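Sample entry follows:

_____
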Amino acid sequence: MKTSLRYQLFLYVFIGLAIILISMSYSLYTSMRMQDMMDRQFETERFFQELQQDVLDIQEPFLDFLSSRSSKALSTLLMESQKLRQVIPSTYPIHHDPVELKKREVFSLLTSYLDLMDEAIQFKRGRAIEEYTQLYETMANLNAYISSQIDQISLHGFREQMSVYEGFVRTSRSLQFWNLILVLSAFMFSILLMLLSMKKITDPMDQLSQMAGELAGGNFSVEDIHVDSVEEVHQVVEAFNGMKNDIRQYIAELTRQKEIEQHYMDERLRNLKMEQLLKRMELYTMQAQMNPHFLFNTINTGVQLAIIEDADKTAEFMESLAEFLRHNMREKKFIVPLRHEVDGLWAYISILRIRFPKTLELNLDVGEELLDTCSIPSMVLQPLVENSVIHAFKGMDRKGLIDVVISREAHLLKCVVRDNGIGIPPEKASSLLRHTTREPEYSSKVMGLENVIQRLYFFYPNQEDIIIIASEPGAGTEVTITIDTREEPCIQL
């Protein structure tokens, strides 16, 4: 049964580390126990050694005080005396052990020694020289005796600790030896397990390396590899076998796929040419649409003027009309210089000023520097002005106003046609701005503003806000065309 390499490595490493950890923990535990035992054994000896040193040190300030009666020496003497009284047990149990009896005797003699010291201090203050001199000699002898008794107690304790220490050393050495054996065994066991795991990986890897060499030489008919290894390596081998078979099948199909791809590319090219042709036909159809009512109205106006007015004004009107018609029929390009579009718009405005001299005011504002440096789709401004003339002033009793402003901000060319008419309902404006794909039989109905909108969408498909309609009922309409001059229109001809 195949097992996971991760599981095997985890198990082997865990077992080895567990053995090492247990052995080291046991070694640490036993060492700490033995150290605690030794600390308790030496605690009494350290106490009596410190007590002996304190007893010897108190003689110096005592002698200094008796010799000079110094207040500093007295202060030091009292502090040392208080320190010694604090270490003396208040009660000490009676034992039959000689060492314990010596300890009891030392504490009793130390108490007597301190009492004699207090008495000598009183004699010194009373200037009883003979009395405190005798007490000092007695106390010196008692101090030496107490020190000798402490030495005997320490010597006896040291002899006992030596036997205990020898046992501690033997036990510690034995424990360290077995701990070393345990650690080395765990290490060798872990290494053995890892070598076994590595062998299960390296053998299949060698076979994979040989197969990779065959595949690099172009031999894809080599037999599949079959190994009994860990789960991860088995999956890699199976994946490698599958990859080899897939490559062999892929190479066998390359020629056929190339033929299919070439056929597909030829067909796609033909479809693109046909689609381009259809778009051009649709564009020609949309651009060829003009409102015939305008032509009839203007000709009728010219006839009326010829009857009721002088010939000069009629000539001016007919000249403007002729210029406008020549402008529309002369240029067949989709994208034209801004000057060409503005010239046609001026001709159209001249006609409107003659037709509506009192009821309509038209203004055109364009910078001279833009006329020859910017391009614009043909016939986009005149239909917007015409749309305002036809629809914006119905039922309105005030003078109509149409402003055309052309400006440039950085790389954006803005063309604004603004009127003070009755406005466009919001739902109508939204309907006009919707992208539509017209059927051929419906294309003839695409007039004026909608014609301009769809042509702009066609020329600039990547500019979502190329045209915006801002209108409120009774407050007029503003149509803004914003062209990014950095982007080429999809059709240049």
